[in-house]
Amino acid sequence: xxxxxKIALVTGSSSGIGFAISKEFAENQGAxxxxxxxxxxxxxxxxxxxxxxxxxxxxxxxxxRDVRSVVKGTILNHGGIDILVNCAGxxxxxxxxxxxxxxxxxxxxxxxxxxxxxxxxxxTRAFLPSMIRKTNRSRRNSGVIINIAxxxxxxxxxxxxxxxxxxxxxxxxxxxxxxxYGNQKIRAYTLALGNIAxxxxxxxMTKPGRKKAANEPAMKRWGSAEEVAKVAxxxxxxxxxxxxxxxxxxxxxxxxV
Length: 257
Ligand SMILES: NC(=O)c1ccc[n+]([C@@H]2O[C@H](COP(=O)([O-])OP(=O)(O)OC[C@H]3O[C@@H](n4cnc5c(N)ncnc54)[C@H](OP(=O)(O)O)[C@@H]3O)[C@@H](O)[C@H]2O)c1
What we know:
With 257 residues, the chain is of the alpha/beta class. The chain is 46% helix and 17% strand. α3 (64-78) runs parallel beside α5.
């Protein structure tokens, strides 16, 4: 069990990719996982679906007071966390995704930036000090931050400008943390995801839309949240001890760099 004795916090874990990562970490890799949702009842329901050591946490990543209080709680209960996964993302909205760049409103831009970018910034900023203290107390382990972005962050895209812009900045956050904190045993990664089947994507699309997306990558299929979770578990373990700042593309071979 690669994550035995590790404490992991996964934002946006009530559904989709965040749920799959929480499940993989707790059920298969032996981590204690803090399962987060903006609604405590959803967090509790989610944690009850996972066979492993979990704790339900109410957390809105856009609310700095919430974030500070969760940091305090993790220090009190666990001496801090070892792995932070920033997976929370603004829900997919057709009205935002399909609007031309020149018609993009500040409201839409701010909404996505608040969750996907500033949420990631708030979380890493608040958790870094205790994560550094914890890793300094341990001879072997490093602290790991995994930020969830998307392939448009690397390649650009002809739709969904606010999402692309926010996720591109997330890649920059990862690189910055890797460089500034690498000498303090903190590693940071971005997962740039392609079409991953979740309620927010595959299950809310039309059949032709699903088919079109499936045909995009070399593998000619959608990815699963579980496939993303396996990669996250590997990054969170000590297997990646001499790699940091990387963007790992998980898209079935559409964007190859
Ligand atoms: N699926 C894909 O194809 C794909 C592709 C590229 C990137 N991604 C990225 O992967 C991540 C997960 O996507 P998904 O498909 O699993 O979507 P999802 O099921 O909609 O999950 C998004 C999660 O974010 C949480 N969330 C939203 N606003 C939040 C806030 N202010 N504070 C805390 N949590 C918040 C939601 O939890 P609550 O409502 O319970 O709070 C929800 O669990 C997102 O960052 C997304 O951009 C997904």
